[in-house]
Amino acid sequence: MSQTVLITGTGRPYALGFNLVKRYLEHGDCVFASVRRPSEALEALKSVYPGMLHILTMDISSTESVNAAAREAETLTDRLDLIINNATTASADTMKELPDFDLDLIAPAVNVGAVGPVRVLKAFLPLLKKSTMGALVVNISSEAGSIGKCYRTFYLDYGTEKAALNMLTMTMHNYFKNDPDLNIICIHPGWIRTNPGNHEAPLDPYEHAETLRCLFETKRHDKEGPVFITHTGESYPW
Question: How far is CA 37 from CA 40, 76, 199, in A?
Fold first, then answer.
């Protein structure tokens, strides 16, 4: 059965979001792909899948922008079955340690990487509520957001935003725990080659997108399983 999917952060053809879009389209699903700025790669993909791929311009750091995108989506579909909150950010200082890090960069990162996905969930909730198969929200987190596993002395912005995203995911999971038709999880997707020069990462974004697509379907109605998981479906420490 085909579904209607919203995926954020989809503009880069070598990154996870874009390849998730491709995999869902190849599977016959209708996809809403959100970007902050125009993407030639997405436009080219839209020409291959006319009527199946809809591109939304949406800045998840702005409530006004997210609400406007939700209103646009409501004119194009009567439901959403899956949201993948993939959009994230990291500052230019992300690899720096405390003496050299501009602490004013942390709050904007949290606004995008943690509050942004909740903005999306809130704005698109009416469409999620209309899913006939049971809706799922997946927040793409990271092992960098695990407090229990933290070992770095950098990532002051990125690690903080992912830890905050994990907390918000668990809070939303508690909020929806008695709703049999909506589930929410967060995932450490693994180390993916999301930059052209990153040859050390073991996971290919296109191949791994299919692994994740299949995994997400096992979590749609899993209200009792772990909320923070790895790409193998195992629980990851908060």
Answer: 10, 20, 27
Strands 4-8 and 82-85 turn out to be: parallel
Among candidate residues 24, 49, 158, 236, the one labeled active-site is 158
Ramachandran bin of 9, using left for φ above 0, alpha for ψ from -120 to 50, beta for the remaining angles = left
Average pLDDT, integer, range 89-104: 98
pLDDT digits (tens, 9 = 90+) for 121-165: 999 999 999 999 999 999 999 999 999 999 999 999 999 999 999
Q: Is 122 a catalytic residue?
A: no
Under CATH, which number does the domain 4-230 receive?
3.40.50.720
Active site residue: 22, 24, 46, 162, which one?
162
24 is catalytic: no
